[in-house]
């Protein structure tokens, strides 16, 4: 019985794998279009201007993220403050 189920399963899955019916290619239209935040404009110019003024240390600091929660106690707030300093 188990072997019959496996054969039935494979007889459905294998043909679809070889015909591309289960393709992983995105079906979203305009997939090549850049999102608005990458298209440039005034905001992009401002960001580039600020970034170019940063020191190397400040640029590296931009790569760090700290998990901070607003629903925690003062001990948590102090720990976050300590990390930032």
Q: How would you portray this structure in words?
A:
Helix content is 55%, strand content 0%. The protein is flat and about 65 Å long. It has helices spanning 2-19, 42-53, 56-61, 74-84. The chain is mostly helical and 85 residues long. It is built from 4 helices and no strands.
Q: Helices, strands, pairings?
A:
Blueprint: H1 2-19, H2 42-53, H3 56-61, H4 74-84
Record keyword descriptors for this entry.
single chain; mainly alpha; flat; 0% strand; 4 helices; 85 residues
What value does the average pLDDT take? 78
Task: Kindly name the structural category.
Answer: mainly alpha
Poorly predicted runs: none
Query: How do the SSEs run, as a string of H and E?
Result: HHHH
Radius of gyration: 26 Å
Q: Give the N-terminus to C-terminus distance in angstroms.
A: 66 Å
Instruction: Specify the oligomeric state.
Output: single chain
Strand content: under 5%
Please give the count of helices: 4
Brief sketch in words of this structure:
The chain has helices at residues 2-19, 42-53, 56-61, 74-84. It has 85 residues and is mainly α.
């Amino acid at each position: 019985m188990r072997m019959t189920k496996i054969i039935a399963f494979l007889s459905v899955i294998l043909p679809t794998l070889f015909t591309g019916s289960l393709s992983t290619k995105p079906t979203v239209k305009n997939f090549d279009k850049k999102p608005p935040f990458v298209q440039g404009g005034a905001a992009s110019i401002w960001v580039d201007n600020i970034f170019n003024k940063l020191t190397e240390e400040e640029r590296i600091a931009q790569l760090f993220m700290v998990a901070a929660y607003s629903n925690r106690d003062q001990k948590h707030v102090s720990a976050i403050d300590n990390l930032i300093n």
